[in-house]
Amino acid sequence: MNLSLSVDLKGQVAIVTGASQGLGQAVAVALGQNGAHVVCLARNAEKLAKTVAEIEAAGGSAEAMPCDVTDRAAAAAAIEQTNKTHGRLDILVNNAGITRDKLMRGMSDEEWDSVIATNLTSCFVCCRAAAGVMRRKKYGRIINMASISGLIGNPGQANYSASKAGMIGMTRTMSKELVSRGVTVNAVAPGFIASEMTAELGDVVMEEVKKRIPAKRVGQPEDVAAAVLFLASKDASYISGQTIVVDGGMVG
């Protein structure tokens, strides 16, 4: 992955959840290429190994930590273990997320609960654990991966939109609680980005989607990784509680 944006993250330790594919993988690689040691979290150990290999091939440093972030104890333990092993945690990117799309009238309790647990509750648990570490160090960068669905809604995504809207509200609140301690908390809200998730929509749907995007193209994972990379840098110290929309002008 080639990004023209570069920041100095040497000596820093980052955790990226959902790092086994898609946006999470792109973010993990970008952080690793810019000097951070990246702890990659996801359930699939085999896919995580590929992310780690890509980071190392680019000259970076990384490790895989298989973890189901919907297991609250396991998610918190992963944060604490990272701090114990490396003596610090500078960057947390909460990217783990799933969809279970269905119109509200047909949505099951399980489809609601699983999306909220993965997308929102895991974010809270990881933020809470990381905040304890970062407050003591008086430095930290927390970036939560939201979505334009959390800003404008989307038919068939009551669960997903609610989880991402909740993430945006939580980001603003956590920022107010942490920024005075040197810990910034921001969200990135991607629009339609080329990924495994959007590929499931099919070519016909995606062609119609492109017509609604002023930039006339679907975003790439690197577009999102660049926004995360900047927010993770020391140069973003006066930006907190914000939601950076990366959608080719779709929301406006």
Automatic annotation (TrEMBL):
Q: What is its EC number?
A: 1.1.1.100
Pfam families assigned:
adh_short_C2
Q: Which reaction does it catalyse?
A: a (3R)-hydroxyacyl-[ACP] + NADP(+) = a 3-oxoacyl-[ACP] + NADPH + H(+)
Q: Which PROSITE patterns match?
A: ADH_SHORT
Which pathway does it serve? Lipid metabolism; fatty acid biosynthesis
Enumerate the active-site residues.
Y160
Query: Which Gene Ontology terms describe the biological processes this protein takes part in?
Result: fatty acid biosynthetic process
Q: Which CDD domains match?
A: BKR_SDR_c
Write the record's keywords in alphabetical order, separated by commas.
Fatty acid biosynthesis, Fatty acid metabolism, Lipid biosynthesis, Lipid metabolism, NADP, Oxidoreductase
Q: Which residues form the Ketoreductase domain?
A: 12-191
Q: Where does this protein hold NADP(+)?
A: N95, Y160, S161, A162, S163, K164, I193
One GO molecular function term of this record is: 3-oxoacyl-[acyl-carrier-protein] reductase (NADPH) activity
Which family does the UniProt entry place this protein in? Belongs to the short-chain dehydrogenases/reductases (SDR) family.
Described by its record, this protein's role is as follows: Catalyzes the NADPH-dependent reduction of beta-ketoacyl-ACP substrates to beta-hydroxyacyl-ACP products, the first reductive step in the elongation cycle of fatty acid biosynthesis.
Q: How does it assemble?
A: Homotetramer.
What is the protein's given name? 3-oxoacyl-[acyl-carrier-protein] reductase
Please name the source species: Aporhodopirellula rubra
Lineage runs: Bacteria, Pseudomonadati, Planctomycetota, Planctomycetia, Pirellulales
